[in-house]
Write a structure and sequence with these properties.
By secondary structure, the chain is an alpha/beta fold. It has 4 domains: about 160 residues, no CATH class; about 160 residues, Rossmann fold (3-Layer(aba) Sandwich), CATH 3.40.50.1820; about 70 residues, no CATH class; about 120 residues, no CATH class. Helix content is about 30%, strand content about 20%. The chain contains 17 helices and 21 strands. It has a 6-stranded mixed sheet with strand order 1-2-3-4-6-5, with no helix packed on it. The protein has a 6-stranded parallel sheet with strand order 13-7-14-15-18-21, sandwiched between helices. Strands 17-16-19-20 form a 4-stranded mixed sheet. Strand 2 and strand 3 form a beta hairpin. The chain is globular, with a radius of gyration of 30 Å.
Length: about 575
Amino acid sequence: MKDRRTTRHCLAIRHGQSHFLNHQSFPPPKKNSATSPHFHSEPSASARGSHFKCGRKSGCPARKQVQQSDADPSKLEITYFDAHTCDNPPPSSSQVVPDPRIISSGTQRNTVQLVRWIANLPIVLYVSTSGVAIRQTRRIQGHLSTPLMRLLLALLLLVLPPPLREYFSASHLPKDAGVGSELHPVVLVPGLLCSDLEARLTEAYKPSAPRCGAMKGNGWFGLWKNASDLAANDYVDCFLEQMRLVYDPAINDYRNLPGVETRVPNFGSARGFHCKDPLHPKQCVDYVREGLERVGYRDGDTLFGAPYDWRYAPPVPGQQSQVYSRYFRQLKSLVETASKKHHKKVIIFGHSYGGMVVLDFVRNTPLAWRNEYIKHLILVAPVLSLGILIQAQIIAFGPNMKFVGATQSSLRTMWRSFETGIVDLPSPKVFGHMPLVITEQRNYSAYDMEDFLVAIGFGDSVEPFRRRMVPKMRYFKVPMVPVTCINGVGIRTAKQLVYWKSDYDRSPEIAYGDGDGTVNLISMLTFDKEMRRQPAQKKQFKSVKIHGAEHCGLITEEWAVKRVVQEFLEANRISS
């Protein structure tokens, strides 16, 4: 997992490691004296027993006292004071800092003091050495795996603000420190291109080349599963053809080519999808899944996946969509099954395009059903119908899918057939009349997207854009369930495209603004505003902006993934 942060950006609460905690037994001590690899006797001993100081480094404050038990002279009591500083320095104010990437407010001082206080509470352990019972008083540091410590840590987490709570996230907790059976089930919905697609060819399929019909009558095969196999089997052209969709104006919906049937395999499994780019195989929430597994989630028990056919756009209520009608029924059944199994509501997670899928799924369910089954929505870098400018560049030039092994023009032809190709174009509600695409002849604003589609040679998309996408742009209804939306900011993001000679076969010059590299900041802020407009939803909405986090970096960078996993833990703690 990548982590490009420097040390000064890390949120860290470092405990001084006590050398003696590595030892579970000690040599039999003489009366009122004891030996240890890291301690030697001080010149004087009190009536209460012998005192020993650290023998590793002068100035280390660690001490221990050995004395006979008043209650039972056959037993020795060993008490440890302070922590070793000879390897790791004790926590200081300069080490306990909020992550500057996480935008939050409020002071940390009292919380930091509470962390230090709990970390220095004494606990009592009993060990037996050669038949001699020894009582050892030690600090809490290093014993977070005991039941008492888990309880204290849980109480501490309730009062910590989010930046400090990240310290106690998955990588800092012991493997058994999760809440086990108390976890709310989670359904993961990945971003674009992640879900596998299988195809079956019938006699109605008319291939453009004989080799493309070779799979007729052979049942289901992986159409979008392993991109490397396409070139190896000389199947790239066939792939591009069989992936295409057709818009049917009679029913105002998209469908496959005649004779091509498709399905999404592995529905229900959190491991049922992956990135097809061999150079980046773990860009489809793999690290988020692994982080959840470290805190106790298990695939098929409390953790599920809901892959979908990403060529289609989820409909707003009232729109026709055969594909999503079936998918929403599957997802609804999955949520109900997971909830009934554990007698708990379900947390649904969506990244990027999956965020749109999740939001539109919930909007298409009855409010009573949401109240019964939905615990929380966690949307990470959601790509919503409010629009993003980069979508205009993709529809003009084609997607960045070089790993498929196809030419850019052939990829563009395939992509333009997808409903996904025209979704997320800039919305007038967000971008207004600002020039977004600039050419020598004219400029195009969000109000001119139909003209822009004609200009790039894609006039066939004007009708489905007008009939299916414009209603999505104009529709906004809050889900009326708890929602956390996490976005990256502070990344250069396209805000204007310059095709001066109207040559859309070339990459444009780009003027940059703020965002996550894909989603424009203005779209994020508009979504936040709309979510807070309804008072009841405002009380159930949390927006997190993380400076320096890229669109995909939110689910691949180690520090960002920790922050995302923390939101799952927080959603589990919130009472509903």
